[in-house]
Write a structure and sequence with these properties.
This protein is an all-alpha fold. The protein has one domain. Strands 1-2 form a two-stranded antiparallel sheet. The chain is globular.
């Protein structure tokens, strides 16, 4: 893989953040700046904060709701993202975006290592993109929950799918679809423990069990 492809996502995100003219900007200004990139880049930016190993606080629920709206539009076959005016006027901090991109080493390196244009016909297929939109919708619902373990894995799935959309990499999109049931399973276990035993049980019991199952303990 060429260096130009390997560093493309990092460079694009850094250029986007450095190109912001003020410390605070609006969601609408962000959308207008990247409208020509379709759903891929905006989903990537929205998913990244919660996909980090140490997620930026306060992003998962509002960004999850916004990604759910985008996913619904993808399922309907829209080619460009749209948000209502009330959402477009919401402020977003340049410093928090810069912190997120700076600390995004693990997921960015993973995606940059594997991504390149492959199976591009599949990546442009409307029916397939509608399916991707449905998975993004399910993952965004999960990451919007104020429950531990329901945010990071679904956000990473959306991040991978967004990168596949952005670079028209159908193979990465298929990989994201394969990862989705794993993320859904982790979230499902967390929701079960939170519902039956309380939020503390998620950290005390569900998290060690999941880490052991995944070989991370």
């Amino acid at each position: 893989m060429s260096d130009s492809v390997q560093t493309h996502l990092s460079a694009e995100l850094n250029d986007f953040v450095s190109g912001l003219q003020t410390e605070e900007t609006t969601i609408g200004a962000v959308l207008d700046a990247i409208a020509d990139r379709g759903f891929g880049l905006i989903l990537l930016i929205l998913a990244l904060p919660a996909a980090l190993p140490l997620p930026a606080p306060g992003y998962a629920t509002p960004f999850g709701l916004m990604m759910g709206l985008l996913a619904f539009q993808m399922m309907r076959g829209r080619s460009t993202p749209w948000f209502p005016e009330r959402v477009r006027k919401r402020k977003i901090s340049k410093s928090k975006l810069a912190w997120t991109v700076k600390n995004a080493g693990v997921p960015l390196r993973f995606v940059e290592w594997i991504i390149r244009p492959r199976l591009s016909g599949l990546a442009r297929n409307r029916a397939f993109l509608a399916l991707v939109g449905f998975i993004v919708l399910l993952m965004s619902i999960s990451m919007s929950m104020p429950i531990p373990l329901t945010n990071t894995a679904p956000s990473f799935v959306i991040f991978v799918l967004a990168a596949g959309i952005l670079e028209e990499d159908g193979l990465v999109l298929l990989g994201g679809l394969v990862l989705a049931p794993v993320a859904a399973g982790i979230a499902g276990v967390a929701v079960y423990y939170a519902w039956t035993h309380g939020l503390d049980a998620v950290e005390q019991h569900a998290k060690p069990m999941i880490k052991g199952f995944l070989g991370l303990s």
